[in-house]
Specification:
single chain, alpha+beta, four-stranded antiparallel β-sheet, three-stranded antiparallel β-sheet, 9 strands
Length: about 140
Amino acid sequence: MPQTYLFAYDYDKIKTIMQDSKKSDIFILKPVASGTNIYAAQGKGIKLVNKKSVLKKMEHYLLQEYKASPHLIDGLKYDLRIYVLVTSYDPLKVYVFKEGLCRFATEQYNNKKIKQRFSHLTNYAVNKNSAKVGD
């Protein structure tokens, strides 16, 4: 599980981490889901950053270590979603939906080019705009 830091609470720690990181270290900056944050869905506001990035305190964002070597399928980054419903804790009653969801990036993964959103993000709302959709 990648380390995650909330700007609202961990800003001093984030500054130290960024200063102490290697030039090649990559972090992902994400909006925090909340009723007041209009950027917390569909890949909006997500950025990959590194040591060279200047980060100001952004109350509704988090910084997370980015896994630079993810598992790939045919060179593409992907994520899996499995839907689970817990209806009771005592006794524990859990239902797992038999079908899940797999989302793929639309360009070959390259951890050297952090500005290529279509190779790093798997959000449908982002990748539907890729020139590679439909190929």
